Description:
CATH architecture of the largest domain in chain A: Orthogonal Bundle
Number of domains of chain A: 2
CATH topology of the largest domain in chain A: Arc Repressor Mutant, subunit A
CATH superfamily of the largest domain in chain A: Winged helix-like DNA-binding domain superfamily/Winged helix DNA-binding domain
Oligomer: homodimer
Helix content of chain A: 40-55%
Low-confidence stretches of chain A: none
Structural class of chain A: alpha+beta
Largest sheet of chain A: 3 strands, mixed
Number of strands of chain A: 5
Distance between the termini of chain A: 37 Å
Amino acid sequence: MVTEDLVRAFDDAGFRLTGARQSVIDLILSRNGAFTTADLVDDARRRRLPAARATIFRTLEVLEQLKVVERLDLPNGSHSYIRCGSGHHHHVVCRRCARSVDLGDCGMSAVAAEVAQRTGFRIDLHRVEMFGLCPSCQTVVPT
Amino acid sequence: MVTEDLVRAFDDAGFRLTGARQSVIDLILSRNGAFTTADLVDDARRRRLPAARATIFRTLEVLEQLKVVERLDLPNGSHSYIRCGSGHHHHVVCRRCARSVDLGDCGMSAVAAEVAQRTGFRIDLHRVEMFGLCPSCQTVVPT
DNA sequence: GTTTTTGCAAACCATTTGCAGGGTC
DNA sequence: GACCCTGCAAATGGTTTGCAAAAAC
């Protein structure tokens, strides 16, 4: 059960397992791809779960530190969050349904190493995000 | 002269070549790496160039459409702009001095193609940003 | 002259914060 | 009981917008 992973990560790190936090985790698990803070706020209100806006933000912050959630910068400038395992990896996100797939390293470490070599930069961090249409959305919106 | 590139791009696209816009272009060219809107606002005030905050934002927006400036999302969540040529490419940015180097495609199209193959996604867009220390900043800040 | 652009200030919107009350260990 | 967490509402900070005056063509 995935819930447990998040819950365990939570109190292993010494955070209290409160009702509000469980609600947020629940909300996140109820979505399957990338989601925005506004999505969670709306879901919470709709499902009458106890989780104020500020708490949602604070909980996401914690989850981000725990590396079970990651924040993405969408091409249009807005932000999204996505649930994911730890370890170095990247995502491809469907621009229509927000479903996402974890890509692992997908060869980027090698690319980064080559770039470091070529430019003389010491590269500490690289970010890769890919956007497009997932298989099922391709059939719906052929463009 | 680089100024001309920006200026020409500007009126080729049917925009008026105003004093304020020339100031913004001038400000951008006076910086050599990535810069923030706040940088430009400060520079403008300091140099007494006519360019109000709103105009700076509006001009950057135009320059972005003209593909001579690109907006970057920094790892800390803030934004930066960078001057660059058109065509598909990525950057490596020094986290200390903001100097940046254009990386061209750097093998990413191939990576994207492989990911498309593997996941079934149709990939329309990918973004890559690398951060680290440029050669000269490495000598200053060894860490 | 007509149309675009500017500047200013106000509006916006997502996110953060202060603080008093409530919940958890 | 001590400390952590929550909710609310207010503050924030970057970005956008409305509008009348000014500049460009």
